[in-house]
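Lab channel / #folding
Pinned by the channel admin:
"Please post every new chain as: sequence first, then the C-alpha cells as a reply. Keep commentary short and put observations after the output so the thread stays searchable."

First post following the new format, from NK:
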Amino acid sequence: MADRSEMSTSFGRAAATYEAGRPEYPSEAVAWLLEPVTSPDRRVRVADVGAGTGKLTRALVERGAEVAAVDPDPEMLAGLRAAVPGIPTFVGTAEDLPLPDASVDAVVFGQAWHWVEPVAGSAEVARALAPGGVLGLIWNIRDESVPWVARLTEIMHGSHAEEMLAGGDPPISVPFSQLESAEWRWARPVDRATLTAMVRSRSYIIVAEDAERARIEREIADLFDEIGAVGDAVVDLPYMTKAFRAQR
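Reply from TO:
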C-alpha cells in the first residue's frame, strides 16, 4: 500500500476525474465558515488552501470573496484555472503558505486539513491571518447510515478524512484552541459516470496496484447495477457536510 505522502500528492494524476466526481459544497456551509469575518462594507479576503480543482473556490467566489488558491500540485491548479478563470493561484502548502503576514481574513481547507501537520499548519495559518481572522475546515462526507453507501466504502476503503472525523473534531494547535462546528445533510443526484469518477478520484484508488484497482472496478460496477445506477439513470448520493471554524 502507498504511504500517506504519496497519497496526499497523487490527485494531479486524476485532476479531470476529481473535477467530474467530487461534489460541490452547500452555500450555507460556506457562508457559515466566513460568518465571523463577513462585512457589508468590504470583500472578505480568503486563501483556499488545498484548493484542488476549485470545488470550494467557486463557492467562495459566489459569496463575493476575494480568493487566492493554494495547492501543492500544479496540475490541480491548472484544472482550477480552467474551472474558475481569473483566480490567482500559488503552489504551496498549509505548512509553508505563499502569503504575507496578516494578509487574509480567512484561510479555508476543503477536503484538505487531514493531509496537514496540525502544529505547523496552525502556526502558519495564524501568521497569514489578520487579527480576528478565521481558520475554516470543511468536508463532504458520504452518509454511511444508508446501506449501499456503507457498502461502497467497504469496497473502496475509507479515507484519511473519514477516519479522522470518526474520532472527533479535527486536530488544531496554538494559537487556535476552540473549534465551533456545524453539519448539513443533503443529497447529490448522480449518474453512473459521476459515481465512477468519484471512486476513481480517491487517493487510495489512484495509487493502488492494478489488481486492486481492477477488483474495486468490478465490485462497484456490481453495486451500481444493484442500486439502479445504469446508463443515464440518476440516484441520490447522501452526504453530510461537516464544517469547523476557529478565530485568530
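NK: The chain has one domain: 4-143+159-189+238-247.
TO: also worth noting, Residues 4-143+159-189+238-247 form a domain with the Rossmann fold fold (CATH 3.40.50.150).
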